[in-house]
Write a structure and sequence with these properties.
It is built from 14 helices and 13 strands. The chain has 404 residues and is α/β, with parallel strands linked by helices. The protein has 2 domains: 231 residues, Alkaline Phosphatase, subunit A, CATH 3.40.720.10; 140 residues, Alpha-Beta Plaits. α5 packs across α9, α10 runs parallel beside α12 and α11 packs antiparallel against α12. The model has no long low-confidence stretch (mean pLDDT 95).
Length: 404
């Protein structure tokens, strides 16, 4: 729903909304008739909420379109990704505290492993830990180019971010990650043949050439790829759009970035477990109306093809849920940003399970378990992810009647 159409209906009150996103939650069965990762997991807390609440499934972008994490999260925040396109680079940059102004160009980087012929044999350099990638990022940060300023900062594990600043730059560039192994990284190419895009592509290709030189002696992270070239999209502010004091609790920087991009406060906390994240929510419960809580490892296990590992992450969230439920949120939404089936080892276009629990207002359906099959039969049906926020606001008593 357009923000300007929603604005006259908004009414403030004291209700609390929690959006719990298990990244890449949706899955596929390993065999016909088998369970998905969510259905395989033992989730007594979520099953109880499913029985007391209502289920459905979301379409992050449009049917058949496989989403990236950035646009998929923006959809859950109520921003139609087709009308508010945002590249991953700016999200990664904001997530680690870098400034990205209109006209700057940010790109997310991955360390990768190249063979003697320059072909990629591991797109994530064995998922090298952060302590191993930190000195490599320092090497990259020493690269200098004429006419532009380049800032490089570590994100997490094998990820880093590059921000280029200067006159006449364009983010209209193609990714260099070919999304497969056995081939070399792609050069940076303009999406459209404009002078600004050609110049920016040449600058990034120059930077990449220097990067491969300074990394050549590393046994695993001897190459890099860049993706998600972007600049500041100047999105509408979340707090103003919904009259909500909003906060983000997340471990991975990119998701802090997408929250910061729309104006949410970022809550700092120690630890990385679901218990740690829910404890952080509890510590700040009185200060905010809306909490976005992000769980990353469901997606990581899906991309690794680890079916049981993904199920165990879901189970760890379920075990920690009583801490979140003890806060008595008025509306709790549990979902994913997209599907990442372990069977595919990648994001997919499949609908995403969605659970809405709102004791004061929900109309329960007949479903008693949280899983893809139940969600496909749930009372909410299949709907666009960007409709989740108006749904949450309605159940939280934060929307007036439309019309006389």
């Amino acid at each position: 729903m357009p923000f300007d159409a929603l604005a006259p209906l908004l009414r403030p009150n004291q209700t609390k909304i929690v959006l719990l996103v298990m990244d890449g939650l949706g899955g596929l069965p390993l065999r016909v008739g088998g369970p998905t990762e969510l259905e395989f997991a033992r989730t007594p807390q979520m099953d109880r909420l499913a029985a007391e609440g209502v289920l459905g499934q979301t379409i992050p972008i449009r049917r058949g379109i496989t989403p990236g994490s950035g646009p998929a999260h923006l959809a859950l925040f109520g921003y139609d990704p087709l009308h508010h396109p945002v590249g991953r680079g700016v999200l990664s940059a904001l997530g680690v505290g870098l400034t990205v102004q209109p006209g700057d160009v940010a790109a997310r980087g991955n360390f990768c492993t190249l063979d003697a012929q320059g072909n990629i044999i591991d797109r994530r350099a064995g998922r090298i830990p952060s302590e191993a990638s930190a000195p490599l990022v320092k090497r990259l940060a020493q690269i200098r180019l004429p006419e532009v300023e380049v800032e490089v900062r570590q994100v997490k594990e094998y990820r880093f971010v590059v921000v280029m600043r200067g006159e006449g730059l364009s983010p209209d560039l193609e990714d260099t990650d070919p999304q497969r192994t056995g081939v070399p990284p792609l050069p940076v190419r303009p999406k459209h043949d404009t002078p600004a895009a050609r110049r920016t592509a040449a600058l990034f290709n120059q930077w990449l050439a220097e990067a491969h030189k300074v990394l050549a002696d590393h046994p695993r992270a001897n190459g890099v790829t860049l993706r998600g070239f972007a600049t500041d999209p100047q999105l509408p502010n979340f707090d103003q759009a919904y009259r909500l004091r909003a906060a983000c609790v997340a471990v991975y920087p990119m998701y802090k970035g997408v929250a910061r991009l729309v104006g949410m406060d970022i809550i700092s906390f120690a630890g990385e477990t679901p218990e740690d994240e829910f404890a952080a929510v509890a510590q700040h419960w009185d200060a905010y109306d809306f909490f976005f809580v992000h769980i990353k490892k469901t997606d990581s296990k899906g991309e690794d093809g680890d079916f049981e590992g993904k199920a165990k992450v879901i189970e760890s969230v379920d075990r920690a849920l009583p801490k979140l439920l003890s806060l008595q949120p008025d509306v709790l939404m549990i979902t994913g940003d997209h599907s990442t089936p372990a069977k595919w080892r990648a994001h997919s276009w499949h609908p995403v399970p969605f659970l809405l629990w709102a004791p004061a207002s929900v109309r329960p359906d007949a479903q008693t378990r949280f899983g893809e099959t139940a969600c496909a039969q749930g009372g909410l049906g299949t709907f666009q992810a960007h409709d989740a926020m108006p749904l949450a606001l309605a159940h939280a008593g934060r929307l007036e009647k439309f019309g006389a």
